[in-house]
Amino acid sequence: MSMWSSRGHGWRIAALTIIGIAIVMPLVVFVLGPNMPPGKSTPVAEGQVTDNTVLLAVMVPFTVFILVYIGYALWAFRAKKGEELQDGAPIRGHFRAQLVWLVTTTIAVLFLAIFGTAELLADNGAGGGGGPNPVAKPSGATIPVQVIAQQWEFTYRYPTYGGVETATLVLPVGKQIAFHVTSLDAVHSFWAYELGVKADANPGVDNVAYVTTKKVHSFQIRCAELCGLWHGYMFDTGYVVKDAEFSKWIAARQAQFQPVSKYLPKYAPSYSPDPSFRAG
Amino acid sequence: MGGVVLVGVLIGLYVAFLTNGPTPYRPAVAGSGSAKSVSLTLETVAAVGPQLSPHENWVSYLVKENGVWHRSTVWTLPANSAVHVTIYNFDGDSGLRNPFLAQARGIVPGSFQVNGKPTSVIDPDDASHTFAIPQMGIIVPILGVADDAKNQCGYAPCPLSNAHNTISFTFHTGPKGHYRWQCFVPCAAGFVYGFGGPMQTVGYMDGYVDVV
Amino acid sequence: MNARSLLRFNLLTGVVLGIVGFYLGWWLGHLVKAPSIAYFDDTGQNDIALFFAYFVGVVAFLVGLGFANYPIQRLLGKPPSLREKETAGIGRYFSLCTDHKVVGIQYLIGIGTFIFIGGLNAMLIRLELMNPTKLVWNGNNYLTLVGIHGTMMMGMMTSGIIGPFANYLVPIMIGARRMAFPRIEALTFWLLMAAGTILMTTLAFGGFPTGWTGYAPLSEQANMGMDAYIAFFALVGLSMMLLGLNMCATVITMRAPGMTWGRLPIFVWGTISTSILMVLAAPVLVSTLIMLALDRTAQTGFFNVQAGGSPYLYENLFWIFGHPEVYILALPGMGILLEILPVFARKPLWGYRLAVTGMLGISLLSFLVWQHHLFVSGINADLRPFYMLSTELISLPTGFIFLCALGTLWKGRIRLTVPMLFSLAWLFNFLIGGLSGVFLSDVPSDVTTHGSFFSMAHFHYTIMGGLIFAFFAGIYYWVPKMTGYMLDERLGKIHFWVMFIAFNSTFGPLLVIGFLGMPRRVVTYAGYLQGANEWVSISAFVLGGSMLVFLANLIWSQLFARVPAGSNPWGSKSIEFQLPSPVPVQNFDRIPTFGPDPYPYGEDAAPAQRPVIAPARPTP
Predict the structure, then answer these.
(1) Domain-embedded: residue B113
(2) Which domain holds residue B64?
(3) Does domain C97-609 have CATH number 1.20.210.10?
(4) DSSP C4-34
(5) Contact pairs from chain B to chain C, CB under 8 Å
(6) Minimal Cα–Cα distance from A185 to chain B, Å?
(7) What count of other Cβ atoms lies within 10 Å of the Cβ of residue A5?
(8) Could you tell me the residue ranges of all domains in chain C?
(9) ipTM of the complex
(10) Any domain includes A199
(11) Which of A157, A166, A183, A263 has the most B C-beta neighbours within 10 Å, making it the best mutation to test the interface with B?
């Protein structure tokens, strides 16, 4: 059989693609997807997991098709070893194939963009820093927690608890938290991994990110923007604890840091401490 | 062949250059078992001087080993021990950018003493440096020498006859670990926000603590 | 000055004059005194002196190479001469030569050397990351390694394919004897070499802590080593602008009869779409760096909040350059891919117009997506859905390129030579790279992956898995034409397989590690990631080893084995393979006339459709 005059190639590729999708898609949607990072500790994180699953699911058909196609082509359209140099079929294009490809990829991309936007709005910004005036604000009460990033440590202020500043982040469970992330010097980034929150800390800017805490757990906090020598060491552990425990904790911190509270500046969305430019 | 050797030599020089840094300092351990302790004697100076560094005007920490002050900021401390720290500060104040860091924490309560007087917090504007190991939750502010003090130190090493403040405290190390320590006061004169130069160079205002 | 003494200007005189110029500039810079820069005394960092030193040093270097000769000759009233050193021996590779083919080979060796240094840095980075608690490199040196690796690679690979291959091939492919501005072509090369050297001097001044992006205000805080970065990128930007300009001018004005826009080889289209980006995006980079330099020296406040500026200004300006920059990296690779596939599938390029649309579409869209680097930085949240859409839309023209590649394979007669293997690997790697990009373009997903190793693995898949694999495809395909000697096929295949497997073994797990919470540019990380990082580091060492296999192949086959390639070792119907190897100085004896089909493969390609050319006589 002259290998490239047979008409079966298209059907074979289609069949292999469909089989491939049938195998990979359930694995992706039911096995990989639900276990994707950042996990299910908050609604925002769950939303990201759903988002990632949808992204993967949309990518599966295209990926399977391309890989199956290339694999098939390398098997079926291979020149035999030692064979005289012969040319392939003189096909310069095929309008319908191009149109089908254009339409399918456009639909996929538009769907992903709309889905991503919906996810972003539904989740009050999906845990990402939205600037001082975020578009999607949660309704209901939020507890503001200011994250002050400085070279090279995060400190946290609780404006509704007397503006007390602490070096550990503890949050009450089952509440809507509004992180107000700012920096005193270089650009840092507050990344609370399991919470699904990331907001850059810029000097002079109040970057707001929302999250609702759902379960009692600890979470990693890492700086995600290169800020100098100790960027890699700028990490912390945060805790989500029960309400009562949180009240006890914050009262203890207010007592512990009472001596320094008279020196702290009044709570503000951002700060301009000295030295303002060059020191000395 | 010659080319390969040349490239090898260049790579070797590059690697040697990159590993160049302060030699670790390991203070002697007193006591044993649960009563282990070490003493760490440090001084902080306004200008480290040409003998100790190519950057003569940079601030620096120095550590005393066998009676000699040298610029080592990589310390090896034993696990589960008490560390008694004495710091002689010869530098003037620069002020803390975040006043919160002016209250000592993470140390044995009541052990923080400035010039022999126990205290818990200092005025942030008077801070000259800090001793901080953030991952251990330790921060101790270091009081600066007054601007009009007499007999201030020029280049390091600084003898105790120069104007200085003595800060002492004790902290406990936990299990084995690798930590970094830094200064939080913007004492790098001339750099933006005071946090460049010596504030971002291991061997001056930054270093490592390896708990073994 | 008579003609003979001018002809003696070369790299040696350039370097000597450059060093003299450096110290002259250093001394001049120290003469600048003002109250507001008294901080120099405190810090010991005289940035003004260093910038003066670099500037005067580079100018002196170029004068020493002979770039001032032609203007001075003309000023003195001498008649114009164009050709410099075009027929002398090996010395012409170490001087200002206006033969575009020599410049192409100079680029190949020059960029190769600096990429080797960048790659070495990558190995040292991975060595550090094997263990989260034990440190190999002292303190700041790790960040400098990261910075040099990224900066050197980005700066060098921007011209990585346009420099060596487009300079060599575009005039031949369009039927011209030279580029539009041969002296500027040589200038772009020597600027790049000066830039690379300047970047390495950062080690003498304390390195720089910002990585290749140079975000203010950290970059304003940094030591003098930062100035080396600024000077490097400014020179690279200048080189890019001139290179792109030259390419555009050449293709627009110097095409031979019969070479209409619709008959250009797809590699030339890739070059044009890249050159447009180079010309438009590089000036933004240079301006941004000038602002940064002013902030560091003249105490302006562009990027410093407390002086009235904003770090956002830097981030936005940088990425307005930075995003087209990565398409400058990707597009030439696509050009090479689509140029090589028809040859080894023995078929015409499928969907020529679609491919051109794809490339130009990528060029256009690349200016509309930059804020996807800033999704969580606190920009106006209203903008995010727009940039999410525009970024995802860029996958459409990229998809066209894929479709054309797949269509070219359909019913072909595929020969798996080394260039073809690298091209096929491009398809695989860029697929993964592109898909991971879709994750990053989706804002909710980006919240976790921004600034993590996922983002790093994404761009390594597209830049290294895409561009560098295409670079090697181009090398194995075109070096026999450039030098006349084949590269060893067996070593080539070993190089390919080790590189492909090691590459995926290195960056595949990094996609996962990023999702598991490891930020970029860190020297320590959570303990549970240590095993994965060890695996990645060892794979990276093997990847580096594959480069040594390539180097061995290059040196062995070009200097020792010297198997003659003949004029057409691959059976290609492209015009450069109808000429002798190496291509003689004048390219063609007579300017050719091109036929209607740039890819006359296929059983129906009548002889009359193949380009009618007059082959040139080999150089005596």
Answers:
(1) yes
(2) 28-211
(3) yes
(4) HHHTT--HHHHHHHHHHHHHHHHHHHHT---
(5) 73
(6) 7
(7) 8
(8) 1-81, 97-609
(9) 0.93
(10) yes
(11) A263
Decide if C350 and A92 are in contact by the 8 Å CB cutoff. yes
Q: Pick the range with the lowest mean pLDDT from C184-188, C258-262, C316-320, C588-592.
A: C588-592
Shortest Cα–Cα distance, A269 to chain B (Å): 14
Residue A106 and residue A27 share a domain = yes
Query: What is the reported pTM?
Result: 0.93
Contact A233 C524 (CB under 8 A): yes
In the block, which residue shows the tokens 């936005």? Answer: C316
Confidence of residue C84 (pLDDT cuts 50, 70, 90): low
State the total domains in chain B.
Answer: 1
Structurally, how many domains does chain A consist of? 2
Cβ C42–B190 below 8 Å, yes or no?
A: yes
C524 shares contact with chain B (CB less than 8 Å): yes
Q: Do C524 and A105 touch (CB under 8 A)?
A: no
The model's pLDDT over C446-489, given as tens digits with 9 standing for 90+, comes to: 999 999 999 999 999 999 999 999 999 999 999 999 999 999 99
Asked whether residue A90 is assigned to any structural domain, the reply reads no
CATH number of the CATH domain containing B71? 2.60.40.420
**Domain around A26:** 9-77+99-122
Contact residues on chain C for B58, CB-CB shorter than 8 A: 44
CA distances (Å), A71 to each of A12, A245, C337, in order?
Answer: 12, 59, 17
Beta B29-30 vs B177-182: how paired, if at all? Answer: unpaired
pLDDT tens-digit profile of C336-372?
Answer: 999 999 999 988 999 999 999 999 999 999 999 999 9
**Residue C532, Cβ density class (10 Å: 0-12 exposed, 13-18 middle, ≥19 buried):** middle
From CA C207, how far away is CA A272, in angstroms rounded? 29
Kindly list the residues from chain A whose CB atom is less than 8 angstroms away from the CB atom of residue C448. 37-38, 48, 193, 196, 198
Question: From A122, which residue of chain C is nearest by alpha-carbon distance?
Answer: C444
Q: Report how far apart the first and last C-alpha atoms of chain A are (Å, whole number).
A: 85
A162 occurs within a structural domain: yes
Quick check: is B179 in a domain? yes
